[in-house]
Protein 1
Amino acid sequence: MLVLITYDVSTEDAAGRKRLRQVSKTCVNHGQRVQNSVFECHLDASQFALLKSKLIKLIDEKCDSLRIYTLGNNYKSKVEHYGAKPSFDVTETLIV
């Protein structure tokens, strides 16, 4: 399933900057960055549950925001992209 993860982490202090790096690194390990604080992640149900749990533990709910949109398996008709930085299909074979 495709999951869209967005976050806004307060960086007013060193702890906030550390949380931001941790949230970003966790998301990078599970999907592709499509904007600064927006990630598209292709996950199965268990991967999704684990990622969601990790992210909720990382943020400070008093000053940070985490939004998760589950687009499911039929996401291709729900996602439109215009402009720079086109994404690649992570479900396809990647040749490096």
Note: The longest strand covers residues 65-72.
Protein 2
Amino acid sequence: MSDAKPRNADLPVRAVVGVALIAVAATALWLGGFVFWLLLTVAGLVMIGEWGGLHGAERGQSRLAQYALMVPLAILSPLAAGPGFLVLGLIAGAGFFIAIVTRNGALGLGAAYVGLPVLALVFLRAQEAGLLLAFWAMALVWATDIGAYFAGRSIGGPKLMPRVSPNKTWAGFIGGVAAATLFALILTRWGLAWPLVFATPVLAMMAQGGDLVESWLKRRAGVKDSGNLLPGHGGVLDRLDGLVPVAPAAAFLVLMLAVR
């Protein structure tokens, strides 16, 4: 999800890249294990680099943050310890290390901002019903994004937070929540637990909140996108900002509800 203004001229490129991203994510999710972990790790390392750019970090500082985050992400591998409290502690340790060495607390915070969603998604995929659970957490964000886009474009109306993201409307916000909820209801046919369905509207709100937070960060940094890696889309943070709060919340729900 991006805060950039509509770029109709880039629509074909955006569509092709968007479909390709979903195809890659879906394939890795289906395969699970090492492939899923590897994709998330690469995305995470790119994300913390972009996070550094949004917080005034020098290139060397961002590189150090990437190296530090590699430690918990490597331990997260299915060939190592896998998802667990050890990785959680190492993410916290990496954050403190980055903040102390670079004297940039915001950069250190990036270890949690990036590491927790990666840990959460690997944890979800490792469950007995991991394919369904991880797909639910990831795709509800996609559904929110699509529902918000079409509702906002077709209905319009009052702006949600014009000073942060001038293109987002209340109609889009409600449309995104409705689309995600409908998506979760459909997944009950494949066994999605009802408590997770009931939680989906809240997670959809969180997804849009994550979008707004990154929009605010970009506005504060004076940039249009978090990066330029993805043609027509900007950076990886631009595409995964909604998943950042949703993945840890979804994993926490699965853990507390003992959904497997």
Note: The longest helix spans residues 194-221.
